[in-house]
User: Fold these one by one.
Assistant:
Number 1:
Amino acid sequence: MSPLPEDSQTSVISTAPAAQSNHTSSSGSASLPTATVSPGSAGFLNTPTFPILTLSTEILVKISEECDDSDLPNMRLVCREFCNSSTKAFGQVYFADLHVLLVEPSLDILVEITAHPIYGRCVKTIVCGTARTIKPVMEYDEEEGEPIPTLSPEFERSEGNIAMLVTALNNLKHHGNLEVALGIHSDEAWTKGNGFRLLGGPITYDGYAVKDFDASGTLGSLLEATSATMFPINKKCFRFLEELELDRIIKNDTIFSSMFSAAGTFNTNTSIRLDFVQWSSSGPSSIMIGISDSNQLDLTNVLLAGEISAVLGSPYYTSSYIRILKLALDLTKFEHLTLTDMAIDTSVFQTVFAKSEGSIKHLKLSNVITSESVPGQGDPTEVLCYLKDQLQLESLTLDRIEITKQIDNGLQSTNISIDHLIEGEKGFDGHTEVQEALEKLISRANSWF
């Protein structure tokens, strides 16, 4: 089990048997309170009583909930009472986000976790790996040596993978846990179950190099299992798919319509999260597109500046994640828009969201750099003016925003953070308050430049 970025952890269910290990505290040893020992009848001693164990179960549970994630395994080793009281907190941390491979040992563990009366209720996400053939890393650069299939032909032909997924989903239904996000992942190509990793080298997973992927086949197995169990697939998760994989999904009409669109509209009654790997001259970076059932669109690290306006308008552009984004924007009127870790200019922003101008009511910008459409010639407050004049916003949240002005024909730039322009919280509610805040920012920014 490895830590996952943000506020959760991932259990990577690999083909290897689960290993047990001893855990020690950060200080190297645990210091327990002195036991109270009283003489018993017939010369025997009573069982030692630790003061903390006289507390109610509710308080012990609260203690476990307040512990650091890394301390929970140690707590479960203290005694039976602490093990029992920390079981739910342990499950919420370590079994909420499960990565599995469609092989028997991995699916065995998935079935065991989902069958557990407590851990089964803690599961929030199950994503199936798309890797199909692997080779030991030592042979990665060698031509000789046959790839090792991660999914045995016999197991696949007997539909054993589907049968075990059916068992796991039925376990979740038995617990009443129907809000689990289901999907696929190929992040084993870039990580060890530890979030996105900006490192080079061979694409490895548990000591093996991935040689082939099958996103469509993996999704097909998952969809068959959900159909057989009538498990609602209202939340979908696609993690770090390569463009080739997503492109295959897009070209498979049956799978694409099931996962993304139906009857000519985007599935706004579902939640979809897509993570991608984007390559550039500076190396790989991660992209996230999130679409929720509340008509909310979340974009992270998606390029919305430069030449993307021409890209979006070109039928020859083949970037799969941009095609998914364009489809979503064409078919859905989003009311909530969140942009994180991005650079935007007015012309591109207007091109991308032209059909959504009338529907966007709530906007959140976090770690965003704004710039003129034409470097060195436009107004540095263009983006703010666009938000004020073209969007009918009911709420606006700004966090770490920089306004940039290009000088010397774009060879240099100067910028200012809005923290220097307006004090206090940067959250504004109500159309009038939003308009007043934007007018103040525009005026002060123009004065500063």
Number 2:
Amino acid sequence: METPPCRDTPPRRFFETCRRYFGDDPPKGDFPVQKKSPKLCGSNYPLSIAFIVVNEFCERFSYYGMRAVLTLYFISFFHWDENLSTAVYHAFSALCYFTPVIGAIMADSWLGKYKTIIYLSIVYVVGHLIKSVGAIPSLGNQVVHVVLSMVGLFLIALGTGGIKPCVSAFGGDQFEEEHTSERSKFFSVFYLSINAGSLISTFVTPVLRGDVKCFGEDCYALAFGVPAALMVLALVVFIAGSGLYRKMPPQGNVLLEVCKCIGFAIKNRLKNRSHHIPKRDHWLDWASEKYSKQLIGEVKMVTRVLFLFIPLPMFWALFDQQGSRWTLQATKMNADFGIYVLQPDQMQFLNPLLILVFIPIFDLGLYPLISMCKFNFTPIKKMATGMILAGMAFGLAAIVEVKINETDMPQLVPKESLIQVLNLAKNPVQVTIEDQDLFQQPVEAFQDPAEYSNLILNGEQQNLHFILQHQGLSLTFNYTVKEKSVYSLIVFEAEGSLSSRLITDLKAKPENGLAAVRFINGLSQDANLTIDSKQFVAVPKNYGVSEYLLLERDKYSNGKCITEMGEFTLDLGLLDFGASYTVVVTNVSGDAVQTWKSEDIKANSVHMAWQLPQYLLISAGEVMFSITGLAFSYSQSPASMKSVLQAGWLLTVAVGNTFVLVVAQAAPMAQVWFGAFSRANALKRALGGASGCLCSGDTASLPSPRLLHGVLAVCTSFFPARALAGNFSQEIYSPKVILWAKSPGRCTPVRADL
């Protein structure tokens, strides 16, 4: 290791000199700023990168673990609807990718990368702690929880976003210039550590949320607390390697200089619009009166790369919905894999798992094979292919959603309601409803209706006559029916005759894959029912009806029914994902009560495994798009602007999330969110409008929110088609601008999302 010039220094300047030497302060003059770090096992890899890789693993575990359960946290803990939950999720994601600009400015202009990472990591930790405290149910009311959670999310976004453009660049700074091959391999390991952290966290934190109970419900405090602990560990590990780092000094306010240069060039060009003034080769050359040729040349490189970034937000608009819409889709599916039941938010672990599998396959297999076929698979074409794969993934997701919608309740419309008849009498009953052409055949005893029937009303509500005919008896009952409601008509025997009761049913499937169950007590005594030793409900006698209970999907065979006659066992059987049940306690037999179960809303029948193809495509698209693009942005950035240009890359993620947020909130959200191909005419409208107003941000023409994902898929595919066809500006492909022509053909990852 090089010896610092601290010896023979006057004592009063000793500590200041050493501190400046090791990079804590910007050096002055010709003062040396770099030192050689010890190597790993005699290789050319500096020991300091081990601390950076471990830090990144822990930080990514922290971020992705917290984000994996965030959407369901909004829905289950705050009781927000899907649309608000999705909007806040993408607002948070967008903020995480807008804040890299702040981190880049701090690193390049003020503190340097090392101090920026330290300070913003502390902010990051504080945000996690506040978020965890806000998830404790007993702490205050709903307002307190929301405020704490939003403050925590803001600090997390500031912390994670601020360090994004710094960590990978700081890792690259640890290598000497002659070790370019080792630096490229480091970026591969760096990317793998990111996905390893993401893989483990997206599998573990949903388990902490769903399988561990605290305060009588899902343990979100633990699910957020573990990522907080990992972020503390990340900070400790990073600080532990402090003495080994090469700490490059800040390069000055580069971003401000770039903006000033661009602004001056535009202003100067507008002032000199006369035909008598000679034209210049490039519009940025109009800044030459004030700025150096070197700066103008570097800004040209940056603007050319940024021009290439224009279509990239469309990819992220699709990609980041894995944590919102795809997770919500998973809550409507069957998650039973036989030996294990997945939590809906655990499906996200497929993406990092597939990334870890695809990187070596693509690097060592696919790309060399394509090269052997004499096809020039340039970085631009790789990115374009990745965007197309993302569009295809959402096409498959739309098809899956169509199948899911088939098990949903029918859409409720004005002046209509839904009704079914549950005949609890011993014999068939003929049911006639005034002015309605329903139930042509008698309703059999204890027959589970196949589906609900439509009631047509003449207003918002209507008083209807229900005529029941049973063994020569004809009885009329009057009930008031409201529009957009779902009812069950309970028919039962009472005092040697017939009686009935109109009860209100659920309008939609239970959220998050839960099962809903209510009880009708056919006994002559009040019953107290205990389900799984946790859920308790009291049901009045003589066909009294309980409220709905929401239960995890499981077999419930050890329930208890307590009446005046004693305690009896209650076997409910399997309560499946997303189903709604009416359980009728009919009589007592021995030490158990006899029950009859009606499935009012059908269980989720589409298996979660059908999401695998869309995850395969989106992950393959990420490998081609994200890794290639990140390496490209790093290679094209001048030495003084690496953090700034990487922040620009991350800004495309923010814009993509903002696009989803704006479109989702501007469109009417009354229908199911994404079934772009659910109807042929819907697909036609999506294809017809994709390249026009929809891409320009005009959401007024959206035919329905179901088309959101189809439209995004079409928009995403529009740009790659041009890239593959070679219609981009030839200036972008120029070897003087794009240095990939001199780079190895293999994909070199630089920085994950990440």
Number 3:
Amino acid sequence: MAGDSKSLTTKVESGSPYQLDPSQTLRAASALLKKISGDSVARKDNGGKANLLEDADEEEDSDETATTVWLNVTTKKHIADQRKMKPGKIIVPFPLQSATSPSLRICLITADPQRKYKDIIASERFPAQLSSRINRVLGTEKLKAKYKTYESRRQLFAEYDIFLADDRIITRLPNLLGKVFYGTGAKRPIPVAMQGKPENARDEAGNKRVKLSEGGDKLKRSEITPEALAHEIERAVGAALVHLAPSTNVSIRVGKSSMTADQVAANVDAVVTGLTEKYIPKGWRNIRSLHVKGPNTAALPIWLADELWEDEADVLEKLPEAVVKDKKKRKRALLETGAANTAEAEDETKSTKKSKSDGAEKAARKAALKKQKEESKTAIAAA
């Protein structure tokens, strides 16, 4: 299936030159879920012996601890110039996690004052089922004062399942939480819009607001309502997160084994659309391959590019004249260097031969001199 790249590349007449083949995505999702299910049954039938090397969260196929399905994206050029501390969010049709799950523990990090958001969550208009899942609300000042040490941050990390943060202060959190949170992407805080809608986005005539840097007024926002905040939290918890880094590979959680193949395929389509429109430079042109996989399965291809280059301009029919001349110069220099090395080797060989012949002559002279001495001694003794 992976060998025939053309069968996995779908082009259209209008819009983007490429798109996913829904039937291929569905086939790959079905095969992957079948494999994960088969492995789960095999583990249960294996005399009840658990694999100690596996993550405890991957052992069962219940909705809360189901095996994760990943989308692996390989690009032709780096996705980002530097590591992004703020993860991107892509809303999927079938949420990856429910914010009202009974066992879920959420920590909400807010801009100061934190009391303002505690009151909103405690409001009667805020859904009670969701407020019971938000176990803690932390302002940045309290976070900075209380969690300075590595050990205290580890305890905070282990205490909650998900960390949400006001998108206004999320870029400050790497300094406040350190490598305990940002060493991996497991529990990196998810940005949440915790402000109301802009009040002066347009003037009375309906024109767009002039930016403050261009002499306009400062953007004013209304206070966020309990209903709006609850909606933003639910969207953030169920979204697919994109952690960007200077690399040609990125893995995104798009589903779980408790979903159907159609649901996984729909999420894959939404994530790929979000990636190509917002996160991957040059969109489809920069994508080399798309695969789906589980934690312990092979990667199944759903799309492979026909070309390994991003743009036709990257492919040269002829080398530039300057490059050709440079190659000729280097070749000539190598030949000259080789000739010089050959001459040096010949000289060294000659000198070696000469030194050997000189040594033989010296040995012959020594032997003759020794013989003369012995003859002289014999003559003296006879006299």
Number 4:
Amino acid sequence: MASATNQSSNARFLDASEEPNQVLLPIRGYAKEPLLPLEEAIKPIDDQLDDLDIMVDTAKRNSKKPADGLTSDESAAIHLYTVQWEEPNVSLYTKLNSILRSKRREPLKPWFRYLKLVLTALFKLPSLKATVWRGVRGNLTDQYDDDIVWWGFSSCTESMRVIEQFVGKSGVRTLFTIECTSGKAIRAHSHYNEENEILLLPGTYFRVVDKWSRAKDLYMIPPRPFLDPPFASATSDTSIATATATPVKENIAISKAEGLPSTAATVSSIKPK
């Protein structure tokens, strides 16, 4: 039987290499779904994940006194996203992000009700303006020459120490340093609140402003929305809008180093166009 691991769920912080290097169709249609309790919202995907009912029960029990003005179901929807199954590759976030990054939009339809709930929750959270970090093992610099869209939910952290812990201090690594305007701080709703996770929403568009090598084997990339808002009154400060709206670009930069010293980071700016 699958269960939530007690260890840090760092896999979702390191999956930037899974992002497709092309523009996909916008993420649309889910906003028309009704806003349902979590137990109802996940019914269409129940056959895609083992022990989903157990994970939902865990999320609901941990979300009885939600922060940030969210309902219990909204907070639990975020909590459920962060939970790592015993095997990371069968976790909800792994499955959902894989589908969000697919060229085909049809497989996303069973997820619409859950997306409606979790994105409604995330849009209610204040947008964070801060420098955040994301990392991956391997060299991705060749994939980031100009503009890029991250189609999945992107897990980031404000702490260089956390990224150092996740990507290690040796071997080829790529770091993204992002001065975001639209991050969502989900610590109060996460199964792993010690990680202080900052979540970037699907369809976030970046412009690469720089990439460089500060030392051996560590590359740094300081990185228009393609996601409909979940409800009509969602404000533009989330940096997420319809595909027909004026795109919001976020800048990203890249570097390389042997270790992961604090001096390796250079902050780039993110300015709406």
